[in-house]
Amino acid sequence: MTRTIVIINAGDSPGLNFIRSLKRAGGWRVVGIDIDLQEYHGSEADVRYLFDWSDEDRLVEYVNEIIERHAAEFLYVADTDRELPVVSRRRDEFRAPLFLPDHTDHMLMEDKWRTWGALDAADLPVPDSALVTGRSTLADMLSRYPKVWLRRISGSAGSGSMSTTSIDFAEAWIDHQNGWDGSFMVAECLGLRTATFSGIWLNGELVASQLRERLGWKYPWLAVSGVTGITGAQRTVWDEQLHELAVACIRTVCRSPHGAIGVDFTYDDAGNPRVTELQPARFYSSMLFLAEAGINLPDLYCRLALDGRGTSPARINPVRNRVVWVKGVDHLPELLTEDQYFVDADK
Predict the structure, then answer these.
(1) Which DSSP string corresponds to 319-346?
(2) For residues 173 and 10, what is the distance between their CA atoms, to the nearest angstrom?
(3) Of 325, 327, 329, which is closest to residue 338 (Cα–Cα)?
(4) Which of 140, 156, 197, 264 is most buried, with most CB under 10 Å away?
(5) How far apart are CA 117 and CA 49, in angstroms?
(6) According to DSSP H, which parts of the chain are helical?
(7) Per-residue b/e over 192-224, b at no fewer than 16 CB within 10 Å?
(8) What does the alpha-carbon distance between residue 3 and residue 110 come to, in Å, rounded to a whole number?
(9) Which domains does the chain have, with CATH numbers?
(10) β-bridge mates for residue 334, sequence order
(11) Over its length of 347 residues, how does the chain's per-residue pLDDT go in tens digits?
């Protein structure tokens, strides 16, 4: 039986890989809604719509029209854009079910500063950080650390991020970003090694999860911070302590975790993971990698939303062997073993 779902932001990278994962599983018909013209043309949904909006009521009305037109059974928002907070807040008005965290928990996780505060209060390992409220904030952090990291407290793909050793550059950056209004935070700058937890929760129970380690960002020279939000190569990993840390972070911030929730880690110079953010309500762009490696989170997510847990066992980091996913613009991604990936450059 083919089931129909509506995906908002279907043509952006997270939406594309969500759709590709569903198509890999089979049994799904996707109706895509995009706001951006280029993403509309790039969408791989079975049916595509382009819709721009400035009024929340009209967004809700339009999405409901599409749901009814196609008898859709489920609604998913694929990206952290302005649509997701609206859909989360007004979830009860849509004529198809959603699978989201509690809205209060959702918005806490969307705010990186509030998330940091909750985790720090629970004595979980986070980078030393401060909310940028004036130039003295930057001066104080740079007096304690040789290099600091600046970023917006909301958004994705390294929004507004940069690292610097210079107080003048830090101040100029906040000036340029109009960030003196409490929309930026500053933290000690950690190392280059990063990892990610992706999980699905159902009424407070962890149903499925997988850890990944990023081997590098794609096109780092295009961003001041070196973080483009586009992973170049990544591999599956298993680290029980890292898994337990991710679970502890989510349980600290969420009263009853529900839906898709991710956790990002950056390691310090001593090799210890620090939690840098939680990603609620949607999946990262690397879900096709995990589907190809052996755990199809988008398919499981949709089936859980529509049918509930049933008797299926939990799938906690089922991919224990290390496989590498290599991707980039204009070439198809590749799934490789570590031996295939780490080749001798002289050969």
Answers:
(1) --S-EEEEEETTEEEEEEEHHHHS--TT
(2) 33
(3) 325
(4) 197
(5) 40
(6) 13-25, 37-42, 56-69, 83-89, 103-110, 112-121, 135-144, 167-176, 240-253, 287-293, 297-307, 338-341
(7) eebbbbbbbbbeeebbbbbbbbbbebeeeeebe
(8) 30
(9) 3-98 (3.40.50.720), 128-188 (3.30.1490.20), 194-341 (3.30.470.20)
(10) 326
(11) 899 999 999 999 999 999 999 999 999 999 999 999 999 999 999 999 999 999 999 999 999 999 999 999 999 999 988 999 999 999 999 999 999 999 999 999 999 999 999 999 999 999 999 999 999 999 999 999 999 999 999 877 667 889 999 999 999 999 999 999 999 999 999 999 999 999 999 999 999 999 999 998 777 767 666 676 777 799 999 999 999 999 999 999 999 999 999 999 999 999 999 999 999 999 999 999 999 999 999 999 999 999 997 767 789 999 999 999 998 877 889 999 999 999 866 65
Residue with tokens 């699905």: 200
Cβ(159)–Cβ(223) under 8 Å? no
* Contacting residues for 234 by C-beta, under 8 A, at least 6 apart: 212, 213, 214, 215, 286, 289, 324, 325
Instruction: Indicate left, alpha or beta for 276 from its phi (over 0: left) and psi (-120 to 50: alpha).
Output: alpha
Q: Could you tell me the end-to-end alpha-carbon distance of the chain, in angstroms, rounded to an integer?
A: 50
Separation between Cα atoms, residue 279 and residue 302, nearest integer Å: 18
Residue tagged 């706001």 (tokens): 35
**Each residue of 146-183: b (16+ CB within 10 Å) or e?**
eebbbbbbebbebebbbbbeeeeebbebbeebebeeeb
